[in-house]
């Protein structure tokens, strides 16, 4: 997989070192996380709070392992994510931003949590993410939140249609977010089947599951 990512980066004229590959371990046991760690993987992702929390606990002895939360958050549970996640890729509404905006009283010294705004690039409002027209307003809200650091934007390509066109749209949104804060320059995009398109459109954080872990479902 590393070779495929490296060659997609070279094809796009990009330095592979700019890319962070997050291995998505959902549906797989904590033992798989140990195996990946032994192979050198340090960034892992989960999309459900309970599963993420349990696996992070089971693997807490693995030094330098970084958990990324990539799934939908409930405002009520959002604060708990801070206890195990290095970053959150799925801020998708004001209530979730507000839930994470202030430091957790139980972790007063924790640094601000790096976070991406998830954008819905489909026609279906029920899919995760904010509408493109609402990205800037949410970005301003994140920038005003003392306990969050805006990293950039995140999206999942629509099931139908061209992934490349969707990622091109995401790149445009990234450009406008960067006018608010040049540091918010990261783009979390690209999964097992569309990572090359995402890399071609500037993705910096790939979220790869089945191509690395195999299918469990
Ligand atoms: C599962 C998941 C991935 C990984 O998907 P694959 O197709 O298995 O690579 C990436 N992002 C999110 C948000 C996911 O839920």
From TrEMBL:
<comment type="similarity">
    <text>Belongs to the pyridoxal phosphate-binding protein YggS/PROSC family.</text>
</comment>
<dbReference type="Pfam" id="PF01168">
    <property type="entry name" value="Ala_racemase_N"/>
</dbReference>
<dbReference type="InterPro" id="IPR001608">
    <property type="entry name" value="Ala_racemase_N"/>
</dbReference>
<feature type="modified residue" description="N6-(pyridoxal phosphate)lysine">
    <location>
        <position position="26"/>
    </location>
</feature>
<dbReference type="InterPro" id="IPR029066">
    <property type="entry name" value="PLP-binding_barrel"/>
</dbReference>
<comment type="function">
    <text>Pyridoxal 5'-phosphate (PLP)-binding protein, which is involved in PLP homeostasis.</text>
</comment>
<dbReference type="InterPro" id="IPR011078">
    <property type="entry name" value="PyrdxlP_homeostasis"/>
</dbReference>
<protein>
    <recommendedName>
        <fullName>Pyridoxal phosphate homeostasis protein</fullName>
    </recommendedName>
</protein>
<keyword id="KW-0663">Pyridoxal phosphate</keyword>
<dbReference type="GO" id="GO:0030170">
    <property type="term" value="F:pyridoxal phosphate binding"/>
</dbReference>
<feature type="domain" description="Alanine racemase N-terminal">
    <location>
        <begin position="31"/>
        <end position="215"/>
    </location>
</feature>
